[in-house]
Amino acid sequence: MAGRGGRGEWHAPQTNKPAAPTGRDTTTRTVVASNRRARFDYAIEDVFEAGLVLTGTEVKSLRQGRASLVDGFAEVERGEAWLEAVHIPEYTEGTWTNHEPRRRRKLLLHAAEIDKLAQAAGQSGYTLVPLQLYFRGGRAKVEIGVAKGKKTFDKRQALRNATDEREAQRAMRTRTRVGE
């Protein structure tokens, strides 16, 4: 009978010390680039977080805050997810080892997530759009949205709703200031 379990199994000794830090803060996001246009042009129905396979100069360029997601999209091909047309400029201090700015980059996802993305992208009118590029715990991540294109009148309606909401918030703020 070892430990305190009574049935022969071993238990780690209890201490009052907190767990040792892992060295990576996985709670904070350092946003490098965001695709604000995507939320205007598309109705985002689902969001996935994916890792990226990058070269060293790409990571250094991202750490300088240089990237553009404007023309980017994702696709699933032969069971693998790829990020296309995302512009990560060459690293300014790089030499002949610099990367190609608009190269195709592999996305790191679980197989079940890739299947969901492939199924969603296969539906008529749906596409996979990068929404944000950021660092979490020292790793570069991209937020991929399953999106359906909006019609022009939908975009106008969304603008009207946003304007009305802003005006209502402004009216509430002035009302609370006057009442003080």
TrEMBL record:
What InterPro entries does the database record attribute to this sequence? SmpB, SsrA-bd_prot, SsrA-bd_prot_CS
Residue ranges of the region described as Disordered: 1-28, 159-180
| Family recorded in the similarity comment | Belongs to the SmpB family.
GO terms assigned for molecular function? RNA binding
Query: Organism source for this protein?
Result: Quadrisphaera setariae
PROSITE patterns given in the database record: SSRP
> Where's it mainly located?
cytoplasm
Question: Alphabetically, which GO biological process terms does the record hold?
Answer: trans-translation; trans-translation-dependent protein tagging
Task: Report any Pfam family annotated for this entry.
Answer: SmpB
Protein name, UniProt field? SsrA-binding protein
Encoding gene (name): smpB
**Basic and acidic residues: compositionally biased ranges:** 1-10, 159-170
Alphabetical keyword list: Cytoplasm, RNA-binding
Purpose of the protein = Required for rescue of stalled ribosomes mediated by trans-translation. Binds to transfer-messenger RNA (tmRNA), required for stable association of tmRNA with ribosomes. tmRNA and SmpB together mimic tRNA shape, replacing the anticodon stem-loop with SmpB. tmRNA is encoded by the ssrA gene; the 2 termini fold to resemble tRNA(Ala) and it encodes a 'tag peptide', a short internal open reading frame. During trans-translation Ala-aminoacylated tmRNA acts like a tRNA, entering the A-site of stalled ribosomes, displacing the stalled mRNA.
- GO CC terms, sorted: cytosol
Localisation per UniProt entry: Cytoplasm
